[in-house]
Amino acid sequence: MKNRTLLGLFCIVLAVAVMFGVTPIVSKMSAGKIMVVQVKQMVAQGSMITADDIVKTEIGRFGVSDTVIRDEKQVVGKYAKTDLYSHINITPAMLSDNADSADDLLKTLDGTKQAVSITVPSYAAAVSGKLRNGDIVSIIVTEERNTTIPAELTYVKVITTTTSKGIDQDKAAQKKDGTYDAPATITLLVNSAQAKLLASYEANAKMHISLVFRGNNETAQKFLDAQEKVFGGAVDE
Length: 237
What we know:
Radius of gyration: 28 Å
Largest sheet: 6 strands, antiparallel
Mean pLDDT: 84
Number of helices: 4
Helix content: 25-40%
Strand content: 15-25%
Distance between the termini: 98 Å
Structural class: alpha+beta
Number of strands: 10
Low-confidence stretches: none
Order of helices and strands: HEEEEHEEEEEHEH
């Protein structure tokens, strides 16, 4: 009987402790609010996020990752590494300083630009396998004994290089000896006039690639803008 009384008293004390101790803490955690950064509508992978794309949203703090971004300055100007949807909390893992994966660049195609691949005739012809996505290159063309850099192909952006197994450069795995499979093709971002030239040279000439620039997007774009002047500013024919 005494044990039952003690057990009953213990249960009462425990219930009171839960009511006045644990429950308020849990309620407080659930009721806490924080402001986080989200996008207003879907932002496609590879797209740069602008101030017009984002919104500050108040959400419950409980269960929210410590990595969730709360400062819009950490988002604006970054690129989406995956499709971002509204009502999804943004974390650093979802963002990139550059949109340079093959998927990123291919998703920017809007009809004014095209993706064209050319064959790599030798290891040396593709800068010894050192080309990277986003590089600006020149196409050196040899027809019979005449070697030139066509004005239309002076500055071209590399989308990716691909091995004979169909693996893109940004997805290639390093081998045990520290090397990578050599590229078999190079995919370039071009307009229709450039695409026709490349197709013709692929069939009737030899092509060699020289690296012109690797670095920030702003400087890379200056090279591409200079290239477009060859076409009078037009990007398609």
